[in-house]
Amino acid sequence: MRPDPRVLLADADRAGADIRRFIEGMDRETYVGDARTQAAVERKFEIIGEALNRLHQTHPEITDRIPPLREVVGFRNLLIHGYATVIPERVWDYAENDLPELRRMVQALLAEMGPPEA
To answer: What is d(CA 116, CA 4) in angstroms, rounded to the nearest whole number?
Structure first.
């Protein structure tokens, strides 16, 4: 049985909201010096990448509407498999500059489909 795409989109959106909450009030320098926040943010990016990758595998017609999908999944793979090469400044930049637009895309799809069933 294919997973409900709304659940996967909601998981990605919730993880994105968590990231924004975790870094609220921080600047880049503060983030880079805070290993706990870095770990939390990286974990949430892993969840976003995994949820959208599963969505792509099961509902590619939906992920066709998320142009940065390849980058998102690649970033997830880097965080998981290339953990020793993760640059905190890059994670910060992604959270500040790329995540808001990705969330807008995910939220637009959720608005069209309606919320996941409980």
So the answer is: 7
